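We emphasize that the prediction below concerns an isolated chain of 465 residues; any contacts that depend on oligomerization or on bound cofactors are therefore not represented. The input was used exactly as deposited, without trimming of termini.
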Amino acid sequence: MFEDIPVEVGLVYEGERIRKEDMRVELGGPKVSEKFEIILVKGQDEIEDGKIFIKGQDLSELEEGKSYPIGILVEVSGEKLENDLEGVLERRIHEYFNYIQGVMHLNQRYDIWIRVGKKSFSKGLTSFMQIGSALISLYRNELPIIEKIQITFFTGGEEFKSYYHKAMERYENRDSRARGLLDEEVDTFYGCALCQSFAPSHICVITPQRYANCGAISWFDGRAAARMDPDGPIFSIAKGDLIDCEHGEYAGVNEHASRRSMGEVDRVWLYSAFGYPHTSCGCFEAIAFFIPEVEGFGIVHRRFAGPTVNGLAFSTLADSTAGGRQIEGFHGISIEYMRSVKFLQADGGWNAIVWMPAEIKNTLTGIIPDSVVSAIATENDAQDVASLKTFLIDNNHPLVSGWREEESEEREIETGYSGNAPVFSMGELPVMAGGIKIILKNAKIYAEKIIIQPVDNKNLKSGGK
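Result of the prediction step, given as a token string:
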């Protein structure tokens, strides 16, 4: 089936990572602003079946170690194909690319990141024609409802830009169709296991008001995929009894998560980044990350190149978020989920957001409530936590009132000594900092006063854990 490609193709290579030093060339990724992959359903007479076109430079013509724009257009036709299936078929591009030995594909839509390894290139994987041939074979073999298929690869030029804008319009049209339906109005959610090769315990739960983390699969897409291929990687989940309305906990989701994760995850809160947050794979569009100094969340997306307000880049935050784990305060999300009224509902929703890149803020104009939009900082307003805190105070962010209430609860204990600070002596004083324990031997501490401040567990947003 793969006679036209000089490397092996199979499920065993899914999840393979290609590090920078092992990379021959990079397509898309964080260094490239414009990239896309899209599938369009066409009429039978609009497709040259089996054809592969290359618009721009081929793999062999790209300079080693460099990053290039990439566009992938897959056009399909078939009597049983509907436009509703475009997003579902499109997500298979991620899966099939990763079947190819020495090729790594991450993310989706306008965020794709592809690397071709040096070893596979040296074996003869030097053309998009070979990759296209493998993709066509995989689509035909796994999805027989596709009767005709052709693929075009773009690496720049005017046609690339034209199709990039067409793709962005198509994504928005699909997303807008899915808005409005409520989680409470359906009996079935959908799950996606396409990223389990990278995150074995991760199951993406797709609801009407919570898009897949990657931003590529809506509830309608999930329904269409499950009907098309009931035994495929996108499947139905009977949501079962509602256990917790605020946090979004459902008995059916818990049962399904436990079974699919082999017991690693047994509870899921769909609308919270704390307690039992929805797991994250590695293809999420954005990360919501808790900033304890201000008791609020920052948000960063893949295209943001600089450090966030807490000094960490997207890649560093992603390492703390990905892998199918439930890490409190680190939450992989889609941009579309931020349009939902369920967005971090249990944590305060938009009133809990304190910082985000200006690009996202502009994208969500009209979605962010008027009562808080001007109080959310961007990289233009705050570059570190100290300046963020000042900005939030100056702009009367809703969280600030909570700080003031805590300050008013502080109780100060003045010293009983005349003019002298009290001395506390002890044999050993353990101090926890930065994940390590420091033990001070025979310590003496001098203090002019002691402030005793009650800890309110609800401010930790940990669901009582």
